[in-house]
């Protein structure tokens, strides 16, 4: 099928696009720059200029496609609320373009934080806290099944990684350690972070596009939960810097999320779709070193 992918040259999109093309799909990728257009073209896709704020480009992309995968998000932690609002408007626009078509719409959400237990696909989205608005958007996507759209949400953990390039939340820890000479964790460091290699995540987005029933939640989780202290120790070992506890405020707004325990499971996704992560774990990627200069 012809698939419209937002965020096509981003950290997830840049691996989803070749995954789709290798499976025989065509890709129309939303891009904001000449460099992004070149990257999408090199991967075998067709670029469409625009961004999440250009609602006409979203409508045009959806109209030309047999399905949509929405991966774009600003990731500007200094303007988080604006990014969440931007995402919600984009989803509403794409939904309007797809209503009644029966076409698949796959949205990138976040694994929920469920105090006291490991979250599963059956748990509701987190709709409070700094990123709670993104949970509301994911809930909206699931309701699109009632509008004749084969909508699904692939929930991503906070650490989507690949050795030498991407580390998700751990990129913030690496950058801070590079800058300050201390590998820090928040509080006692026992809070757990789930993770997935971005190549394994790309496979699951393709599976959702091809096979997920309307209103389905999938979890792209390979590692259910490494403690923040363990992650900081791995980074400190590579950079040869001390490992210390700090207050959550050291990391700004995102520090409030860092302080939370957020383990997550993908057992139901693996059972229902046969998805099996095969690429290196987050700990393996951190221990391998070769970090880019992120600070």
UniProtKB/TrEMBL annotation:
Residue intervals passing through the bilayer: none
Molecular function (Gene Ontology), one example: aldehyde dehydrogenase (NAD+) activity
Pfam families associated with the record: Epimerase
Coiled coil: none
Cellular component terms per the entry's GO annotation: cytoplasm
InterPro entries listed in its UniProt record: Epimerase_deHydtase (IPR001509), NAD(P)-bd_dom_sf (IPR036291), NAD(P)-dependent_oxidoreduct (IPR051783)
Region annotation (Disordered) ranges: 112-136
Limits of the NAD-dependent epimerase/dehydratase domain: 3-213
Protein name: 3-beta hydroxysteroid dehydrogenase
Species this chain originates from: Streptomyces fodineus
């Amino acid at each position: 099928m012809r698939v419209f992918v937002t965020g096509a040259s981003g950290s997830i999109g840049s691996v989803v696009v070749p995954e789709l093309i290798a499976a025989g799909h065509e890709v129309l990728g939303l891009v904001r720059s000449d460099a992004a257009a070149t990257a999408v073209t090199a991967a075998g896709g067709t670029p469409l200029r625009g961004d999440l704020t250009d609602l006409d480009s979203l409508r045009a992309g959806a109209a030309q496609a047999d399905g949509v995968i929405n991966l774009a998000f600003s990731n500007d932690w200094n303007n988080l609320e604006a990014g969440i609002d931007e995402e919600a408007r984009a989803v509403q626009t794409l939904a309007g373009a797809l209503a009644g078509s029966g076409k698949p719409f796959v949205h990138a959400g976040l694994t929920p934080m469920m105090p006291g237990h490991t979250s599963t696909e059956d748990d509701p989205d987190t709709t409070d806290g700094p990123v709670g608005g993104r949970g509301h958007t994911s809930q909206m996507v699931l309701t699109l099944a009632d509008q004749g759209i084969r909508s699904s949400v692939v929930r991503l953990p906070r650490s989507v990684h690949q050795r030498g390039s991407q580390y998700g939340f751990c990129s913030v820890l690496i950058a801070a350690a590079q800058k300050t000479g201390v590998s820090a964790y928040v509080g006692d460091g026992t809070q757990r972070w789930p993770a997935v290699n971005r190549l394994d995540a790309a496979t699951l987005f393709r599976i959702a596009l091809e096979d997920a029933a309307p209103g389905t939640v999938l979890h792209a989780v390979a590692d259910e939960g490494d403690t923040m202290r363990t992650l900081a120790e791995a980074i400190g070992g590579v950079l040869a810097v001390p490992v210390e506890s700090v207050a959550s405020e050291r990391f700004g707004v995102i520090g409030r999320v860092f302080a939370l325990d957020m383990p997550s499971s993908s057992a139901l996704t693996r059972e229902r779709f046969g998805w099996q992560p095969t690429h290196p774990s987050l700990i393996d990627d951190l221990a391998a070193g070769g970090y880019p200069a992120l600070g």
